[in-house]
Amino acid sequence: MNRTEFITVTAIILFAAFVLGWLASWLVHRLTRPTRSGMTELDRMAQQLHEAEEARDAAIAQLEEREADLASRLAGAELELQAAMDGLRESRTEVEELRDYIEMKLARR
After folding, report:
1. Fewer Cβ close by (within 10 Å): the C or N end of the chain?
2. pTM over the 0.90 mark
């Protein structure tokens, strides 16, 4: 085997290896490529995920709105309770004063 034959055989072997590698790559790509039905399923799942995220965001917004409403109602109720307690305290003081006044008037007789 002379030098020219060796170079030719080496070139043919390298070309054959390149062709086999390219065919293997093409075959792997062809077999792992998603099908149309798979892509349709992925699109449907992406749409459902998007709708679920929108529903979650709407639920969070509604929850925050209700929480703010309940917090304001609670604050109002606490203010009303405080006003009622102050009124009751004043009424008790007034009742005690009236009792003392009545007892004083009855004691003079």
Report:
1. C
2. no
